[in-house]
Amino acid sequence: MGAMTAVEARGRRAWELREGEYAEVADVSGDDERTAHAPYPVTVRPADLLE
Fold it and tell me: Which of 9, 5, 7 is nearest to 35 (CA)?
């Protein structure tokens, strides 16, 4: 399974490869949290990245 993450000024966005095309699976910012399970488990909270 392919996955990618983009870092933007307002937060983070993540995509997963589904049926040959990338689909957005997360758009988080500030104190929001997102737990990804592929390619490995990780929880991201953008506000923590600014400390």
Answer: 5
pTM greater than 0.85: no
> Within 13 Å, how many C-alpha atoms sit on residue 26's CB side?
25
ω into 41 cis (within 30 of 0): no
> Strands 21-28 and 42-44: what pairing?
unpaired
Of the chain, the end-to-end C-alpha distance in Å amounts to: 31
**What is the chain's alpha carbon radius of gyration, rounded to the nearest angstrom?**
11
Report how far residue 3's alpha carbon sits from residue 14's, in angstroms, rounded to the nearest whole number.
7
Per-residue pLDDT for 28 more than 60?
yes
